[in-house]
Amino acid sequence: MAIRPPLTSTVDPVEAPTPMTITETAPDTGTTTGSAGSPQNEFGELGSVLGTGDHARIGRMFLGGSFIGLVAALVVGLLLDIERSSADSVSLLDNDMLLQMVSAHRMGLVLLFALPALLGLAFLVVPLQVGASTVAFGRAAAMSLWTWALGSALWIAGYLVGGGPGGSDLRGTDLWLLASIMVIASLLVASACVVTTVLGLRTRGMTLGRVPLFSFSMLVAGSIWLLTLPVAIANLVLIYIDHRYAQALFGANEQILPQLGWVVGQPQIYAIAIPVLGIAGDIIPVFAQARQRFYGVSLAAIGVFGALSIGAFAQTGMPGRTISEGDPLGIAGDPLYIGMAVLAILPVLMVLALGADTMRGGRLKFGAPIAGALLSGLVLLGATVAGAVDVVEPLDLFGTTWALGQFQLTVGALIVGVVAGIWFWAPKIYGRTLASGPGQVLSAIVALGSLLSGAALLAAGALDQPDSPAPGAVRDGVEALDLVAAAGAALVLLGVVAVIAAVFQARNRDDDTPDDPWGGHTLEWATASPPVRGNFAEAPEVLDERPLFTPNAEEDAQL
To answer: Coil, helix or strand for 17?
Structure first.
């Protein structure tokens, strides 16, 4: 029985890397003490944190900060679901707070969690997967982290002083608009770092057709963000100018959120879910102990899904559109919008089908990462199906909570996918493995909560419940569905808090962690856990998309 050699060495990590070839075995790597080999500087630990260009440390801080934003946004969403269950009155929140909390919930999930969480995971994993010693533009990556952190604090402060969409404080709303520009701009800088890493820092032999699926999905997602989010910044600049000096066109508070609604609606909302396919695509073959079936088709499917998530055109104010109360964007009958919503199902279904085929042809072992990967893919498939139904004009679902249910499913798929990625890459992120049993349970809890919340809101939308939580007449059964949605949101929140606790508990353990506990196939598993400074003792050269996969991988992974 073949045994995979241990991935340890005493090579000086700061030596200039020299080329090597990876065929069937993994290269030796250096090990050091401390976090990712980051040295102390003359300003001590604080200086090494604030001035770091280490991609691992930046990624961990991005990832940790994003979970703080996630908890805050989930709490706001839970309060809105509870408020919505009292359809004939406002019993929990003040009328003036409702619109503010709607925007805080939806925009917060995207700007304070989804994008920074994915970028944090990318900063940690992408350089390792493409064989790079670091992320491109390390100082710009650090700047994006601290700019995002400051912008997020100001973004939240804008709400706390009574600003934001629907807020009564004009200066608070100005602060919120400027903070939103700051947050999005910082995320765009971080996206440029990740995209450039994949395009420009790949190791020898790694063509784009051999890039691991997560890195490729971040290339696609980052490119879509760089293409579309500057449009959101332009929207915000125009809104800010009009709000501050005239409020004559779209700067009135009640007009702010409709101008930005395309960012959290389909098809643009799928742009945050593109990496879900990459995470699942990298995890499934490892746990199936087999090569990914039709690798090129998976790459193409992820690219097509990215193209179908370009949503900057689906916004109010576009010429030739008729705006109505049920269709504030005037987009309901747009053939491009309808076609993209329907076609989005196909690439998701293709990636899942290829994953199922890979599992069928291998010897499947079970664990928390693959449980989360499969659940996230299935929830995302449900979201795309809901999005396709949303554009069926005779059903008249525009302006109802159907769109909110589809949003909840998409974000839920992302949360489960990020949790799966954390469990899978935990040895590279924290230098520790995370307990498999709790990981499986927590992934199931978050997925179940997302499905409950999303399905209940979809059903309420089918009963004509308006998207706004403002009081009004509703049909029988809607309030019960809103309570189910609230219960689902509470499950998601509980699961996320438990994930945070599990990560902290694991980080406090003092046990040895294998460099490659899964029998991985891609380059991140050819280095130490956590990686040393420079990541690789020698610059690797790859010959195919699975450089560490060997005919004996099935046996090696079980040892």
So the answer is: coil
d(CA 333, CA 330): 8
CA 363 to the chain's CA centroid:
29
In one letter, which amino acid is 445? I
Predicted confidence (pLDDT) per residue in 199-221, tens digit: 999 999 999 999 999 999 999 99
Calpha distance 490→484 (Å, rounded): 10
> Residue 366 class from Cβ within 10 Å (0-12 exposed, 13-18 middle, 19+ buried)?
exposed
Closest among 96, 238, 94, 127 to 177, alpha carbons compared: 238
Give the domain CATH number at 344.
Answer: 1.20.210.10
Quote the CA–CA distance of 417 and 415 in Å, as a whole number: 5
Whole-model pTM: value is 0.88
Distance CA 411, CA 387 (A): 13
Q: Is residue 87 part of a domain?
A: yes
Q: Give the total number of structural domains in the chain.
A: 1
- Helices 335-343 and 345-361: crossing angle in degrees, nearest 10, is 10
Q: Is residue 45 part of a domain?
A: no
The whole-angstrom distance between residue 148's C-alpha and the CA centroid of its chain comes to: 16
Highest mean pLDDT (candidates 19-23, 167-171, 174-178, 532-536): 174-178
Q: Is 50 left (phi over 0), alpha (psi -120 to 50) or beta?
A: alpha
- Structural domain of residue 83, as residue ranges? 58-317+325-536
Residue at 11 is within a domain: no
> Phi then psi for 340, rounded to 5 degrees?
-65, -40
- Burial of 209: CB neighbours in 10 Å, binned 0-12, 13-18, 19+: exposed
C-alpha 142/C-alpha 479 separation (Å) is 46
DSSP class of residue 27? Answer: P
Residue by residue, DSSP assigns 431-485 as SS---HHHHHHHHHHHHHHHHHHHHHHHHHHHTT-BSS-S-----TTHHHHHHHH
Residue 454 lies in a domain: yes
